[in-house]
Please model this.
Amino acid sequence: MLPERVAQLLDDDPALTAAGVIEQLGVHRNTAQAALTALRAQRMADVLEQQGVDAAQAAAALGYPAGLTRRASIRAEAIVRGRRARPYLADVARALHARGWTTTDPPPTVEHPQGDECFAALVLDGPDAPAAALVWSERHGWRTSTSRRHPLGRGAAWPPPGPNVRHLAAGTTPGPADLVKALDSTS
Model:
């Protein structure tokens, strides 16, 4: 509900600020800022992909003042990288499903909990799964997680390897077969 209301306000006034959202919708400042940043970033990412421009040009094309788009620009670029990672993540999801570690094979949703980095989590709910979940980071690659409910963890911080967290395969985008092999060798 809030995103739709903020979207309408932003459609009416591309220079909308968090103070304007607070005044018109009566929400907390952090809520207003988060909604504006997320909405601007999504729209800017669409323009980035469609027109092949940079974030500043996308903001200008949408009529957003430069002073109001710093966070949205960073997030928009991360959104585009996440969209480009979807086919890879879908291939991994299919490979894990084929191995019997997941009961379904839809690709994971790419998230941006820190704004500038892409993360994705795959819950391993198969009966013989070697971990509760897998987490992918565009900077670090793959690791196991002990939680199916909150696989990214607080703030999506990248934990060091330990008895319950294993970093898997080499590189940030190992082939699905290599990832399965690396995970298989840990069980």
Remarks:
- The longest strand covers residues 119-123.
- DSSP finds six helices and four strands in the chain.
- The first helix runs from residue 2 to 12.
- The radius of gyration is 19 Å.
